[in-house]
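user: Please supply your own:

assistant:
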Amino acid sequence: MGKSRKSKSATVPIHGDMAHNTGFLLGIGGLVVNWANNESVFLAMLQALLGAKHRTVAIVWHSHRTTVGRLELISRLARDRIEDETLVADIDRAIIRFKGACRTRNFFCHATYDYDSEMRLQSAHGITLTQDGDPISFVYKPMEAATLNEIIDASMKSMLNKIAEVFEGEVESSVMSMTSLIEPLMILIMGIAVGFIVLSICLPIFEMNQLVM
């Protein structure tokens, strides 16, 4: 019998008051991970819409330097290439929610944090874009239960996965229907081309026979 291997546990260092700070730090970490996963769903959407290889899609993706620019591209392509209006509306709703998650993620990833005398996270100060025409806004968020709920809500843990599955199936069915329509047209075009070639070969022969007779 072989020796059982004991799993090694990793210790995550928590700065300051562990009882108070752990929830916020884990929440922000979860937000970052879920944000990255959800962004990869939109990357898969872009690939399906373009019908291109990974390398080409990566070039298009990174040519838009901001997440907002990438999402706008996906929204426009979806409206142009998807006939199912319900699916397009679902994608637009997902984009709106993801933009909100992006603002939350950007704020907490770039904020400055204050601690009280007992090393408890007290507040976060950051700069965010506003929706009322002003370029930036200075925001103060106390590190309390409402803020933690905001972080958790922004994670959108499973919302985009379902859309990705539906979107993938819709794109595949659209491609299949387009292929079924194109195939008869291609056969017709090839038949006309072959007929033209045959006539171009046979007509001179018929004319020569007429001259000989």
